[in-house]
Specification:
Layout (H helix, E strand, L loop, with lengths): L1 E8 L6 E6 L7 E6 L5 E5 L4 H12 L2 H9 L3 H10 L4 E3 L4 E2 L6 E2 L6 E6 L1 E2 L3 H4 L3 H12 L4
The chain binds zinc ion (ZN).
Amino acid sequence: MTIAYFKSRCLVCWKGFEVPLLPDSSYGDNLYYDKIAKTFSYFSWFDNKEIENCLTDFLSKNPKLQFSNDDTKGNTARQIVGLMANGDKECVLGYNRCPRCGLKFNSVSATRTEIKEIETLNFTNFLNLDNNARQQYLLDRTKNGL
Ligand SMILES: [Zn+2]
């Protein structure tokens, strides 16, 4: 899949970099940022039924997270998808993170830099676990909050 990137600059350390933005029509899609690799990935609920089922199962057994997901209109679920993915992924929820100092901020210029290929979020490590191990993994990763 290809996506448009836009010019951005950190408000603190002034590093210039570029960030992808999804088109307005991309309902149900999300972008993820890998904090170690400093790369972006793309996720669509429509292509990931197994992940969605596993998440629904997990939330139904964890009322606290289910409430927080309802309160945040699905952001909790999006954050948990990041935990399921390979790598150290966080969902891009209206802000971007500076690749140099790690600051989060939400201003992106309207200047398009280029259209690039973006990789899809990959779940091979998580999907290799059996169902009990998946639920336990999510329990461990969420017990101190998201
Ligand atoms: Zn910075």
